[in-house]
Amino acid sequence: MALKSKVVILRKVSRRLVVLWLLIFLLSLSQRAFADGPVSEYGNQKPTVASPEDIAKAKQKLQRFKQLYELSERVKKGQATQKAYLNALNNFREDYGIAQPLNSGGVSIQTHTSENLGVMLVPQQTSYWCGPASVFEVLQYKGVYYGPQGQAMNQANLAAYMNTDTSGTYLYQIKRALNDWLRTSFYVYFQGPTAEDTYVATHSDIGLNYPVIYDTSSNSINGYLIGWEGISLDHYVAGTGHRVNGGVKEVYYLDTYQQNSAAYGGHWISASRISKLMPFPYGITF
């Protein structure tokens, strides 16, 4: 009886171990299926928790942008004057320390209906440098050649400055690098933007001659960036344009991942679609 009891006990223990192993295996599959993406291969983003100060600044700037956007729409409808819009735009520039554009005297509201800055596309130099590459595109467009310590403006130095590693770049580091290298406090980041937030922030930044950067997470739940269908990943891309196409508000972005020919390059995408790729804690730096 004692031997039989031991055999029964061993069988029960073995069954429990098999069940436990199966549970662990299934859990690992679940985690892979809902992971943000193969960050070791494409990596870009680490979760960022914004400080109350950063949140307040982002909300304040977004509110100012919404007021500017609403005023521009009223001008198009003949409900406000273009002078009123230009005065509001100039007041914003003064508050944020932005220089007047060389052609400020010829600004037309119509140019804000569809606009795409001439930002040059550059390929990211490693699989996890989409953050540094996107920042590089913005800084190159703005005519920046050297960093705060006199370092050359290149992806390697930007990656070092933002503490980028194989698992990616923190969102707050994007804002920090842009402001430090531009010697400004213009950029803020806003997490979990709506479609309206995304379009208004892009529209207003582009109107002021500043590209934006989208911090996206493509997967089966959020949807996918163009060319990444069926592939889960986190990815930074620079936003350089906006338009209304057949009544649909769209933004233009540059994808720096050259190894994926379907994704690499510039793409128009609806503000609604790309905003769904930026659920909290992902977001837009504008």
The arrangement of helices and strands along the chain is HHEHHEHHEHEHEEEEHE
| Main sheet makeup | 7 strands, antiparallel
Gross morphology = globular
What's the alpha carbon Rg, rounded to whole Å?
A: 24 Å
Counted beta strands: 9
Note the total helix count: 9
Structural class based on helices, strands and sheet pairing: alpha+beta
Helical residues, percent: 40-55%
Mean pLDDT, to the nearest integer, reads 85
Distance between the termini: 76 Å
Strand content: 15-25%
Contiguous low-pLDDT stretches (5 residues minimum) are: 6-10, 17-43, 102-111
Question: What does this protein structure show overall?
Answer:
It is a single chain. The protein has 286 residues and is of the alpha+beta class. Helices cover 44% and strands 16% of the residues. It contains nine helices and nine strands. Strands 2, 4, 5, 6, 7, 8 and 9 form a seven-stranded antiparallel β-sheet that branches. A two-stranded parallel sheet has the order 1-3. The longest helix is centred in the N-terminal third of the chain and has 32 residues, at 2-33. The termini are far apart.
Task: List strands and helices in order, with pairings.
Blueprint: H1 2-33, H2 39-42, E1 45-46, H3 52-76, H4 82-96, E2 115-116, H5 130-141, H6 155-161, E3 169-170, H7 171-182, E4 189-191, H8 195-207, E5 212-218, E6 233-245, E7 248-255, E8 265-270, H9 271-276, E9 283-285
Parallel strand pairs: 1-3
Antiparallel strand pairs: 2-6, 4-9, 5-6, 5-9, 6-7, 7-8
Helix pairs in contact: 3-4, 3-8, 5-6, 5-7
